[in-house]
Amino acid sequence: MDIILGLLAILAVIGLAMLMSNNRGKIPFKGIIIMILLQLFVTWFMFQTEIGQDIIKGIAAVFNKLIEFGTNGVNFVVGGIAIEEGASVFFFDVLLIIVFFATILSVLTYLKVLPLLIKYLGGALSFLTGLPKIESFTAVNSMFFGQSEALIAVQSQFHRITENRLYIVSASAMGSVSASIIGAYMQMLPDEYVLVAIPLNMFSALIVASIIAPPVVEDKDDDVDIDDVSGAKSIFEAMANGALDGGKIALIVATMLIAFLASLELVNYIVGVVIPVEGASLEAGLGYLLLPLTFLMGINPGELVDAGSIMGLKIVTNEFVAMLELVDMQDQFSEKTMGIVSVFLTSFANFGSIGIIAGTVAGIDSEKGKTVSRFGLKLLTGATLASILSATIAGLFL
Question: Which of 136, 195, 321, 337 is most buried, with most CB under 10 Å away?
């Protein structure tokens, strides 16, 4: 039964994306089928095989060791602050780890390790699926870098990017996550769900976006240049740039959490006054609204509303707010529901990301920035469908 529901959910996502498509006759069905099969293989391999489990444990061990190194740096700076025994300060214990991860990414970019890896992985993806190189490159790039960085990486190609192609690269940026934040996610969610979400979201964002805005590209407009991706003149400058970028991200996330959590409390207070019923809240309303989709995704019947409320909360706020809520409720969820919701949350698909992406694109090309603002809601809808697709596929193997 779970498999049937999962397949129905996949068909529902594809069907909804097709309803939104602006050129159904050009949808690259061959590439889409190949990517779905790759998703199924990757998820089966990582969840159901000993080698896959060993790889997950190995990657998690590396990240946990890096988190340990990052924690040493954080403790040196803030270790003198008195904290009640057994308590945890989210900004110190989770967000400041981003600074160290951003530094590592910056150094690997300066050394051309990541750009070459991304270029050849993107080339392989393009070869397998038949999709254009720039779109494939951006999809792979979005597994490592944040929304802004993923778009900036292809700014030299913007003169070749049509509106449909702009939608795809923007959707890839919104639908994925940054490696600099993965360490923070792994402080809250089980390692295996965060790690499997990364490749799943890469494929899902590309699948849904290619249906909604099918790319039609000539060979002369499909080239990727990685010659000048860092901007740093030395490894020490790369470290400094990465650290500063990581610090900005940590502060931005902290600021947004304060604003969103406080606003959520205000909204829930108002909802409680208007609807004086026990349990009435914005999250509960979102849970009921998403109930049909959460049912198809394979979430246990008794957990549909609670799981849907967390998923909806992520869309209207951000993934950190929803992850904190999930951590508080994790004892109420089965392992399968925990896995499905965790994979859904591991992406940038939320309202705030529309502004981030539109602002980044406007900084590169003002006219294209206006275009992104115009299809902003369509972009969020597509990225959310991509998250649903990823979570559904993960649920098939849980």
Answer: 136
